[in-house]
Amino acid sequence: MIATLFHYDFIRNTFIVGLVIGIVAPLLGSFIVVRKLSLMADALSHVTLAGIAVSLFLSKTYVPLVALNPLYLGFGFATAGSLLMEKLRSVYKHFEELAIPIIMSAGMGFSVIFISLANGFNTDLFSYLFGSVSAVSRNDMYTIVAIATFVFIIILLLYKELFLLSFDEEYAKVSGIRAKAFDIIFMVLVALVIASSMRIVGILLVSSLMTLPVAAAIRIAKGFKQTIIIAIIFGEISVIVGLVSAYYLDLAPGGAIVLLSVIILILTMLYQKIRLRVILSKRGEENGIISE
């Protein structure tokens, strides 16, 4: 049954994109969680939605733009939103978290206006909100894979600097690292991954794929690199099983992927709890033997 599934081009496109996103989303998510910026992904996803809404409005209003791919404006808005968010963080130095709700509110405001101008919700917009198994075209696949590959390479090249900035920003600055420049690069990378993931997971759920696998990995990992590796494994499991389930059960893939991520998180928490009980039980037995 699985082999038959891959006879369709759109399914192959979707799975290729899903596998790539399953790597870069948890990879970046690991840095996001450590830097306590988990809500940043939500804010940028709302800005991406604004770009999609504007694109759909333009394609309906102006005939020459009817073939405009919403993915491109999604990338543009997400990148612009990430740069503006970083600017706001520097403006509100003592209240940096204010940048997140400001950008989220602006993104949602633009989204609502242009969705209403585009005559409300339709099938295309619904697929962007919650993901779609059949929405990934060949051109989309090439674009998303290229963007994801670029993000992955940049993360590898700048891993040391991003690691230091995530765990000890003051030491990183003293070491000569240009924190501001790397923060901007990081924000742009997050924006690109969010815009890339919307075809599979959906704009409203994309932040979950960046944080839930990391939250699960933290429960059992013994270091940051191990957290990244385990988070990617969990992300890939969620994407693959979620896409297969979505296709055969006729579900929105975003919901299926997120629910699987939640199940994995619950299982890791149960595993940690059981493991802790076993360790305490063994220590109790050892102490009993010693006292005897």
Can you tell me about this structure?
The protein is mostly helical and 292 residues long. It has a single domain (2-208), classed as ABC transporter involved in vitamin B12 uptake, BtuC. Helix content is 81%, strand content 0%. It contains 13 helices and no strands. The chain has helices at residues 2-5, 9-34, 38-61, 70-91, 99-117, 123-130, 138-157, 159-167, 169-174, 179-197, 206-220, 224-249, 253-291. Its main location: membrane.
Structure summary:
The chain is mostly helical and 292 residues long. It contains 13 helices and no strands.
List the helices and strands and how they pair.
Blueprint: H1 2-5, H2 9-34, H3 38-61, H4 70-91, H5 99-117, H6 123-130, H7 138-157, H8 159-167, H9 169-174, H10 179-197, H11 206-220, H12 224-249, H13 253-291
Helix pairs in contact: 2-7, 2-10, 2-11, 2-12, 3-4, 3-5, 3-10, 3-11, 4-5, 4-10, 7-10, 11-12, 11-13, 12-13
Family: Belongs to the ABC-3 integral membrane protein family.
GO biological process, one term: transmembrane transport
Subcellular location: Cell membrane; Membrane
